[in-house]
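Comment on both lines for my students:
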Amino acid sequence: MKVDENQGMRRFLRNVLETYAKSKGWRLSDSSEKVIDLVIKNGGNCPCRAVPFPCPCQFHCEEVAKNKKCHCNLFVEDLS
């Protein structure tokens, strides 16, 4: 993937994930750019799972509810 395509994909994913997070009452973490890069590198899969699950993985809602963040630290509870 070219650098320009990668930047476009990064912006697209960030916008989609931010919209999704807001709809849940969450926000993206301060380290979300690194996680988004890993999602792109992993072909759209969650970067923290041994078995490929599309990002966001099926466990993220439960993790945020329990731990105030998901395992890969993409989504965090919005405490503002």
